[in-house]
Amino acid sequence: MNKSTSSRWSVIGLALLLGVFSTLGPFTIDMYLPAFPEIAKDFGTNASLVQFSLTACLLGLGIGQLIVGPLSDAYGRRRPLLIAMIGYVVFSLACAYSPNIGMLIAFRFAQGFAASAGIVISRAMARDLYSGHELTKFFSMLLLVGNLGPLVAPIAGSGVLTFSTWPGVFVSLAILGVFLYVMTQFRLKETNPPERRVSPNFKEQLRNYGMLLRDRKFVGYMLAQGIMTAGVFAYVAGTPFIYQNIYGVTPAVFSILFASNGVSLIIGSQIVGRMSHRISEQKLLLVGLWLALISSIVVVGVTIVEGPLFALVAPLFVFVCSIGITSTASFPLAMESQAKNAGSAAALLGLIPFVLGALVAPVVGIAGEDTAVPLGITLMATSLVALGTYFLLVKKAE
Predict the structure, then answer these.
(1) Which superkingdom heads the taxonomic lineage of this protein's source (predicted)?
(2) What is the pLDDT of residue 3?
(3) Separation between Cα atoms, residue 354 and residue 398, nearest integer Å
């Protein structure tokens, strides 16, 4: 094996490893989705409260990144990741043995907080090592693995439910946490050496965040990505009830339908990775934003006329594909000038989608479990706002 081939395989190996860490978020969010109706029945509660456990997890994932990102800038990437994986195992088991819906909601927040380290640190490590088009290509490889999470997680959750009840899903997540701790301890090298680390001073970290938030283009890319991803979380919160209660599909069929959108995420991210040398990331981002708006308008129409299942699944597939495009294109654009504060920048990029997603997720159930119209309206609204944000902040800053 020659040197260039060996180097290529080492890059692929690193992308696979970091991609596994980035799947922790999707697995934490998605694996228990097929169990939503079972959880509601077991605790004697309604759909909105079960969906609020998802909201709590999203808040934990977002706030956790805001804290873990700067810590990894100050103390290196490995140490915070090791501590977080221990916490993830503990809180996953706590979710499994929650005595009521209130405790489940609280432990889901803590579980999401711990899982955030896998997302933010894997992305910061990518920026430690690459920049420009090379960062785009590497990030698309990382997402190729990371986007398998939404594809595999609900199927895995449905598989667990065939021989166990819903707590078994969280025990399985605890086992995943143990595996990732071992991978961190023995396979992951430090990419943020001491000479590149920033001061752990809290005031300086706040100044770093202030500097990032004053960068108009960074904020534009951050908000465009975040608002679009919030639409996906609306989809995540709404489809378990829409597919199973309105269309009457089984948990196994729901898992297959949900997993198909993991394929669409992969398609979207790989389009950007393969086309970035010929078409600028900015143009690809704009294509993704327009594609989201068009497909979401179709979703609204289908939900209003109560169209058949396939008529709803198809535009949702396209919508999620547009998220793969916008996420992959916006990340390198936002991170390009943030080498020194990669952890803080990655934290903000990770925070906004989860905070907005946490706000949006309960909205899709606001009209009850017998209509999908709120989902369509939510997707269209997020697409419109994301597109408007891009033109208002990014284009005006050029």
Answers:
(1) Bacteria
(2) 45
(3) 28
- Check if the beta carbon of residue 17 is closer than 8 Å to that of residue 154: no
Mean pLDDT of 108-133: 88
State the SS3 of the chain: CCHHHHHHHHHHHHHHHHHHHHCHHHHHHHCCHHHHHHHHHHHCCCHHHHHHHHHHHHHHHHHHHHHHHHHHHHHCCHHHHHHHHHHHHHHHHHHHCCCCHHHHHHHHHHHHHHHHHHHHHHHHHHHHHCCHHHHHHHHHHHHHHHCHHHHHHHHHHHHHHHHCCCHHHHHHHHHHHHHHHHHHHHHCCCCCCHHHCCCCCHHHHHHHHHHHHHCHHHHHHHHHHHHHHHHHHHHHHHHHHHHHHHCCCCHHHHHHHHHHHHHHHHHHHHHHHHHCCCCCHHHHHHHHHHHHHHHHHHHHHHHHHCCCHHHHHHHHHHHHHHHHHHHHHHHHHHHCCCCCCHHHHHHHHHHHHHHHHHHHHHHHHCCCCCCCHHHHHHHHHHHHHHHHHHHHHHHHHC
Tokens of residue 35, six digits: 């169990």
Please answer whether residues 8 and 131 qualify as being in contact, where contact means their C-beta atoms are separated by less than 8 angstroms: no
Contacts of 178 (CB under 8 A, 6+ apart): 85, 89
**pTM of the full predicted structure?**
0.73
pLDDT digits (tens, 9 = 90+) for 327-336: 888 888 888 7
Kindly report the three-state secondary structure assignment for every residue of 74-99. Answer: HHCCHHHHHHHHHHHHHHHHHHHCCC
CA 286 to chain centroid, in Å, comes to 20
Can you give the residue ranges of every domain in the chain?
A: 11-195+212-397
Q: Which CATH architecture has domain 11-195+212-397?
A: Up-down Bundle (1.20)
Distance of alpha carbon 246 from alpha carbon 261, whole angstroms: 19
Cα-to-chain-centroid distance, residue 229 = 8
**Alpha carbon 267 to its chain's center:** 16
- The answer to whether the beta carbons of residues 386 and 224 sit under 8 Å apart is yes
- Return the percentage of the chain with pLDDT > 70, whole number: 93
Token digits for 380?
A: 């269209």
Q: What is the mean pLDDT of the chain?
A: 84
